[in-house]
Amino acid sequence: MYEQACTTILVGKKATVDGSTMIARNDDTFMPITPQKFIVHPAVHGRNETLTSGKNGFTAPLPADGYRYQAVPNIEVAEKGVFEENGFNEKNVGVSSTESVYGNEHTLTFDPFVPNGLAEDSLPTMLTPFIDSARGGVEYLGQLIAKYGSPEGNGVLFNDKDDVWYMEIVTGHHWVAQRIPDDAYAVAANQVAIQWVDFDDPDNFMWSDGIQEFVAEHHLNPDKEGFNFRHIFGTDNEKDRHYNTPRVWYGQRYFNPEIEQDPQSSELPFICHAAKKISVADVEFVLGSHYNETKYDPFLNTPEAKKFRPISMNRTQNSHVMQVRNDVPAEQSAIMWMTFGVPAFAPYLPFHANVSETDPSFANTPLKHDMNSAYWLYRTLSMIVESHYADFVQDDIDYLKECRIELGQFVAATDEQAAKLSGDELTAFLTEQDKVMVAKMRDKAQALIGQLVTKGLTLSKLTYNVDINL
Q1: Which of 230, 238, 328, 351 could pair covalently with 234 via S-S, beta carbons 3.0-4.6 A apart?
Q2: Beta strands of 295-440 (E only): which ranges?
Q3: If you average pLDDT over residues 285-297, what whole number do you get?
């Protein structure tokens, strides 16, 4: 209904270099500019309020009590809806919502979408402040879908310190969720991703009430045996093979370079085991990729250069890697690495979950261009790099490397100091440290912009070398 185009990565704790869980997504919209802000909602108690969507008329009472939580909403709410998208709550439960997915006409015939049901624009608001675990998030959202229905197909990402879950809602009321094994990763890209469902394994699968009976009654299973969720509820068409499956292929190619696969295959696996352990930087690279070092890279002049839709796009409004670490105390363990720029060209900044507010440059995004705003600053940087890609890309690569080093040092130093604090004192410390980090990164981005503008002035085609002897 109001679906967006995104790319998702999920990683279990034994598949990462440091034992953390990770969920990650590019939040892509229909236009290059859909301004967002990054805020923290305080905890609430005794509230009496109803949520009403300006997009589809969905209406529901909000629970009286809710946890503090991060959110990345639109600033043009009346025109574009709220869409709070991603964030941790104070229990270190991460939610990223949503990866748009598409059910097929056979299943939607018998369980059509509910026009005024719970859509992406309202989903994080109805979910993130009210859950205590990743698994509990799936259960809670399942109850909401049973009660209100869904007007669209959505994939929702959850993580806590132990678990990573991916939930796909594909018709008005039916869904399946799968726990990503601890030693595995998964990539999804706007196509139903979950494959074989084991209904005898409730520890690793959850599903809507009656889904097996629904499929049997309406003769929806095309396979001779088993329950392949993708085959039953998903699509397999020409658009998928140009828009969706190549992104999954590239992510799997990066994590498993030893495996040869067809970028247009409809049978790319959902659950995968990487050739090496995965870092935050690895996930950031994939989210910022555009078929790098292949003939499909749109920056090349090959016949195939624009055959497939890349992962990183100018329409990516925010890209995030939500990490819950297990090697530091819980009060400082959850970090959301996020960029407002095009992820191919802009750095991911680490924001702690345990903060009371965000820096004004992230929290107060204006509608029009303003270099004091993080949203506009990093989108400006991205546009400048792309405008002279061949001449500027190495400068950008060097800049991003320096950022990763400095930000890694920031996290390590903050961890060391934070370990001595607790309670409100720790929250205040992390809040202030994140603001210091934002300021340093702002100065660094502005310096690169100045460097590139200066360099760009020498690249003008409106130049002429004058011989002074003439």
Answers
A1: 230
A2: 316-324, 334-339, 349-352
A3: 98
236: which residues sit within 8 A by CB, 6+ positions away?
266
d(CA 324, CA 11): 11
CATH topology of domain 7-324: Penicillin V Acylase; Chain A (3.60.60)
Q: How far apart are the first and last CA of the chain?
A: 67
User: What 3-state DSSP class applies to 12?
Assistant: coil
Rounded Cα–Cα distance for residues 228 and 328 (Å): 39
10: β partners? 23, 186
Task: Assess whether the previous peptide bond of 98 is cis (omega < 30° from 0).
Answer: yes
Q: For the packed helices 389-418 and 423-456, what is the interaxial angle rounded to 10 degrees?
A: 160
pLDDT score at 465: 75
- The one catalytic residue in 6, 82, 184, 311 is 6
Q: What is the pTM of this model?
A: 0.97
Q: Which residues contact 442 (CB under 8 A, 6 or more apart)?
A: 361, 374, 377
HSE (side-chain half, CA atoms, 13 Å) at 365? 24
CB of 157 closer than 8 Å to CB of 187 = no
**266 CB contacts (<8 Å, ≥6 apart)?**
236, 240, 241, 245
Q: What is the CA radius of gyration of the chain?
A: 22
272 is known as an active-site residue: no
Quickly state the pLDDT bin for 2 (edges 50, 70, 90): very low
Instruction: Render pLDDT for 92-135 as a digit per residue (tens, 0 to 9).
Output: 999 999 999 999 999 999 999 999 999 999 999 999 999 999 99
Query: Percent of the chain, pLDDT > 90?
Result: 97
Residue 83: C-alpha distances to residues 62, 107, 121, 126, 437 (Å): 16, 27, 4, 11, 26
Q: Note the pLDDT of residue 32.
A: 94
DSSP secondary structure letter of residue 116: T
Q: What is the 3-state secondary structure (H, E, C) of 23-67?
A: EEEEEECCCCCCCECCEEECCECCCCEEEECCCCCCEEEECCCEC
The one-character DSSP state at 347 is P
Question: Which tens digit of pLDDT belongs to each residue from 401-419?
Answer: 999 999 999 999 999 999 9
Q: How far is the C-alpha of 304 from the C-alpha of 264, rounded, in Å?
A: 13
As to burial, measured by CB atoms within 10 angstroms (0-12 exposed, 13-18 middle, 19+ buried), residue 361 is: buried
